[in-house]
Amino acid sequence: MNSCALFTDVSLNPQRKLGVGGYLLVPASFLENEPYGIGQDDVSAQLKIKRFAETSSTTLEVQTVLWALEQVSDGLIDPAGGKLEIYTDSQCVAGLLGRRAALEQNDFIAKRSGRLLRNAALYRAFYAAHDRMGFRVNKVSGHAPAYSHNTIHRIFSHVDQGVRRALGLWLDSPALPGPSASRHGEYEVAHHGNDR
């Protein structure tokens, strides 16, 4: 695959520290479709979902992008010069590349506390993935009114709905399931401790 668009989003229950991350990978040409020609079914059929336990909002956003990049990387590293554009509503993820020099200069140590940043390992992994894949990150405004949707907002809105639905189904299940393989309708469960 040469040029691709990768949409990522998350939904979190902060009280239970349970979250769901999702991604959608489409060819860049898919973005040429008219917004209202893209239905929820078009996105749901290709949306990949993963569950995360013991997580927080910022951690979940970065975990999800890293998981998505890991899943799609084999087909994306193209010596012919394919491009990868990531679309996210996460301010943290969208700002990581701009913060790289300062974070690395301070060795991922917080200025105020003098301690290693909670997500330092995730940030390092993100930068390593960027060095390998050369992706670009685009900030999408989340929860925009439907009348203002362009194609990117329309796709992102469907990803957002799918991720929220997946979290709701997980939380409504009688017993939270243990880890399982991800196959057509089942969801992979990842248990991550705090990455400090």
Automatic annotation (TrEMBL):
Highest taxon listed in the record's lineage: Bacteria
Gene Ontology MF terms in the entry: nucleic acid binding; RNA-DNA hybrid ribonuclease activity
Classification of source organism: Bacteria, Pseudomonadati, Thermodesulfobacteriota, Desulfuromonadia, Geobacterales
The protein's name in its UniProt record: Ribonuclease H
Domain RNase H type-1: start-end pairs: 3-150
InterPro entries for the chain: RNaseH-like_sf (IPR012337), RNaseH_domain (IPR002156), RNaseH_sf (IPR036397)
